[in-house]
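Here is one chain, start to finish.
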Amino acid sequence: MSYDVFIDRFIHPFILYVVVGTLVSYLLALVFMRFPVMKNSKARALIYSAIFLIPFIGYAVYRPYIDRCIVAGHPLGSINDKLCTAGEALAKILTPLFLLVALLAFVKGGLSIYATRKIVRRYGYAQPSDYPELFEIIENLCQRADIAVPGLIVTKDRFARSFTMGYRNPVIVLSEGVLEVLDSEELETLLAHEIGHIIRSDSITTWIIVFLRDLMFFVPVVYWIFRDLSCEKEMASDDYAINLTKKPMAFAQALIKVWRLSPKKLFDNIILDNFMPHPNFVSSSGVIEHRVRRIVNNEYQNSNGSWVGMLIVSLISVVSIFFLYWIC
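Its structure:
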């Protein structure tokens, strides 16, 4: 297969599917999220996650059956021809860059796995004899949540950091700075928040979505969607932590304390977001302010919201994939 044929049959339709599929599904998501029933963060996070998957699903389903994008007699007529011609020109420009970014995305994914394993090797798992209060709290929470007690790693960092990593064998990573600054009730709510991430498998889903986001680099809106997705994931775990512990004020205090002691340098944030793409307990000040405000104002959600999210995701997926099939 020649390079030009490869671009024409694979890269060109991929670019069209990603651009059109992302924009259509995102616009549909914005419409649905205006309804009051869509205030649930868990449902909203599910919908934002689906936006990253829909173009790839559509491409995988239809690509093997398409020889060329331009089809005679298409309902859109000359608009379709111009769209596909523009896609071909864009594909020729972007293909070398796309192949490079795809390679870097695989490398970055491997580095994140390496970084995760390096943390385990460097610090090892915490033992109950070293942190009796910590283990008492986590065991009590896991009993109430009806899950197995995850592994715990305590790093020597003096700043505050808390995140969850791993899928089959999840691990909660805390810094000594967190243990020093939080009292027992605040620590309980923080651990409950991390348990919320474990229950929804946020670590592996975030890793996958970061990889897909990198492959979709030529659609700038995906970074906006990813930012909103990260925020909704954190708020969904906030809701879970409050409902599990019944201590909203302690959780709000934990958020503020951890944010104050978190690393805020641009370099640290780039490393955390890209090479350690695990759900992080705190983020920017604006997001923290919003999370604290919704807790203080009792705006956190008690309902599950999963069935609503699944229904909306199904509708958006069907409409978006049909639109992709119709376009190309």
